[in-house]
TrEMBL record:
Domain Methyltransferase small N-terminal, first and last residues per copy: 11-158
Organism: Pseudidiomarina insulisalsae
Subunit details: Monomer.
Name under which the protein is recorded: Ribosomal RNA small subunit methyltransferase C
InterPro entries for this protein: Mtase_sm_N, rRNA_ssu_MeTfrase_C, RsmC/RlmG, SAM-dependent_MTases_sf, Small_mtfrase_dom
Enzyme Commission number(s): 2.1.1.172
Length: 353
């Protein structure tokens, strides 16, 4: 019972309405939690969030699929936790239309503040009318049916490409898909960080929370000898990043994760615009974990560069980890911060005093 209380509000509603979910062999899409599984029959789970997918791996890896495209398998219906982005909802429903049979039920779950109350205006063929099943926990459960399967889902039809001037080089080509941060272009914070980043020497660089890869690709084009690793929690972001690299003739390692894992190597530079949302909710967890652990993933004298909204408490966390924090630039919304990893840790230095 205590585990159920920890479920997201939409998942709590799902558990309460389990009797209304009368289909078998269901595909769960975008589920942020898993304790509801004992109440509803699912045979597969499609995740776009690497952190959520790892929760499912602990239960049954055969259920788990992480990626920007739907899993293969014979599913009779689906339960979709609606994302906050309408374009991503369109993407998910189009993908499901390619892997579900005719008349397959598709249940839609979401918090009322996420726009689920107006979803009936967004859903159209090949889906039927949207029916309300229940509401509660500030959430709503809806049902629609797939009238006509549409094989041959093409993710590339959802790709948007833009360019970003990078003198004296040719413009940087950026690919993006629904659900990627700042879709379809570049956000003002990352643009501000690019204006203040130096040209780094050859070495290893990590673009943390890389999105479509704008920071790492920009720096890699300036210095071809940089070995760049791109890390993001989102399958859609990693797909976009891979395409950005391809369009610009670049190479890099892509990692799906929501934090700096212990097995990662040390880097000479880490750049980031850390997130502070998970779905609709404000969530400082990823940013906090990143800043607490960033120093141990830097080489001696390695540099951390990041941009963030000024109201976020990141300077205090950087100061606590690095024993200093340089504010490089700021405007009325964003600030650019820099810290350098010292040869000795702050603790060790205090011990010698």
């Amino acid at each position: 019972m205590s585990e159920l209380k920890q479920l997201s509000p939409p998942s709590q509603l799902l558990v309460r309405q389990a009797a209304a979910i009368d289909a078998q062999a269901l595909l769960a899409v975008n589920s942020p939690d898993r304790a509801w599984r004992t109440s509803v029959p699912v045979t597969g789970c499609w995740h776009l969030h690497a952190g959520f997918s790892k929760l499912w791996q602990h239960d049954d890896s055969s259920l788990h699929h992480f990626g920007a495209e739907p899993p293969s398998g014979a599913f009779a219906g689906a339960i979709v936790w609606l994302p906050k982005e309408k374009k991503l909802t369109d993407y998910l429903l189009a993908a499901l239309a390619s892997c579900l049979p005719a008349d397959a039920p598709v249940w839609l779950l979401g918090e009322n503040r996420s726009g689920i109350k107006s979803i009936h205006k967004q859903i159209s063929a090949p889906y039927g009318a949207v029916q309300k099943v229940a509401n509660g926990n500030h959430s709503t459960l809806l049902l629609t049916r797939l009238s006509t399967p549409t094989p041959g889902f093409d993710p590339e039809s959802y790709r948007v490409c833009e360019t970003l001037a990078q003198p004296p080089l040719t413009p940087l080509k950026l690919a993006s898909y629904p659900g990627v941060f700042a879709y379809p272009g570049i956000d003002a914070g990352s643009e501000m960080l690019l204006q203040h980043l130096p040209q780094f020497k050859a070495g290893k660089l990590l673009d943390f929370a890389c999105g479509h890869g704008v920071l790492g690709a920009w720096l890699q084009r300036q210095q071809e000898a940089l070995e760049v690793t791109y890390l993001d929690v989102s399958a859609m972001a990693l797909k976009a990043c891979a395409k950005t690299l391809e369009l610009n003739g670049l190479r890099g390692e892509l990692i799906a994760a929501d934090k700096l894992e212990p097995g990662l190597p040390q880097f000479d530079v880490i750049v980031s615009h850390p997130p502070f949302h998970t779905g609709q909710a404000t969530d400082y967890t990823i940013g906090q974990q990143f800043l607490r652990n960033a120093r141990q993933h830097l080489t001696p004298k390695g540099e951390l560069w990041l941009v963030a909204n000024r109201f976020l408490p990141w300077p205090e966390l950087i100061e606590a980890s690095f024993d200093h924090c340089q504010r490089v630039a700021q405007d009325n919304k964003f600030a650019v911060y820099r810290a350098v990893s010292q040869v000795a840790s702050p603790t060790a230095r205090r011990g010698r005093r």
